Amino acid sequence: MAGSAQVLYSVKGVKKYYPVKGGILRRIKNHVKAVDGISVDILKGETLGVVGESGCGKSTLGRTILGLEQLTEGNLVYNGTNISGYSKKELKPFKKEMQMIFQDPYASLNPKQTVGEALEEVFIIHTNLSGKERRENAIRLLKEVGLTEEHFDRYPHEFSGGQRQRIGIARAIAINPSFIVCDEPVSALDVSVQAQVIKLLQDLQKKHELTYLFVSHDLGVVRHLCNRVLVMYLGQMVELAPVDRLYENPVHPYTEALLSSIPRPVVGAKRDRIRLQGDLPSPANPPTGCPFHTRCPIAKDHCAAERPEWREIEEGHYIACHER
Ligand SMILES: Nc1ncnc2c1ncn2[C@@H]1O[C@H](COP(=O)(O)OP(=O)(O)OP(=O)(O)O)[C@@H](O)[C@H]1O
What we know:
By secondary structure, this protein is of the alpha/beta class. The chain has helices at 58-65, 88-97, 105-108, 115-126, 131-144, 161-173, 191-208, 219-225, 243-248, 253-259, 301-305; strands at 7-22, 27-43, 47-51, 73-78, 81-82, 98-101, 179-183, 211-215, 228-233, 236-242, 311-314, 317-319. Strands 6-7-8-3-9-10-12-11 form an eight-stranded mixed sheet, with helices on both faces. Strands 2-1-4-5 form a four-stranded antiparallel sheet. A hairpin with a 2-residue loop joins strand 11 (311-314) and strand 12 (317-319). It is globular, with a radius of gyration of 21 Å. The two termini are 30 Å apart. The protein binds adenosine-5'-triphosphate. Adenosine-5'-triphosphate binds next to strand 2 and helix 1. One of its GO terms (molecular function) is ATP binding.
């Protein structure tokens, strides 16, 4: 991570609720609280991991802070500018700064467009480059992500999964962004290919001083790649800490359970697997108080009544838990 801990993107009390409609009149009956009050400062040059069970709101958080979803509540302050409530036009220069790498690059590539055309399209939208310059830049990008000029005229179906993800990465870095949300970028790839793509992401981060928000359910990859990790449960933050500290000393009972599922071949570091009781509650009807209390092995009566405050227990290590 780049030396000083300057804040690039400040996410303040962000909520994203989706309406649930029902009845003959399709009236709004309820809301899915996909993201329910997230506040975190994303530091320049870091990789901030976001982990949690499926459906806890990781992807929605990523999309919301990229401005791809409208905020329900909260503020987004990018490099000192509060961009929440900005119009599409006002957001344009900021959108250039922020890009996304998807789990399935195939879904975001047009099957009828050659890879060269797909890359040139980004320059057409965001720059005034001439056709020749666009082609040159597209070829430079292909090389930068480990492909070659010969790939320029090929179609997405002619590539392997790993190569397609390289194309997705080339598109994401084309116009020199500062901040990239990587949404499960290697989950669909074979393990050997995963390692290559992760190495590419790391090299590009160094070269271009990129800041990543890395959404993943793969706790091994997160440990390897991230500087800090945010643990989410039902749209809320339960723990945030530097990566080694979180993995070696998880404090929130949910983080403990989540991390206990990783095989630990480390001598003397035995940690029994903690099996959570009960199902994950619906984000449309989250429990009162602490969202985790219905499955928490150490919950007390007050955990059902009051939402625990977010507090720092050691420098840079935060939790929301009444009992720890
Ligand atoms: N467009 C939408 N409309 C309604 N509900 C949505 C929408 N997008 C997401 N949700 C709901 O919001 C919640 C959070 O979803 P999200 O995809 O952000 O979770 P996630 O942690 O990224 O899950 P996964 O790991 O499975 O991708 C889920 O209950 C999901 O069904």
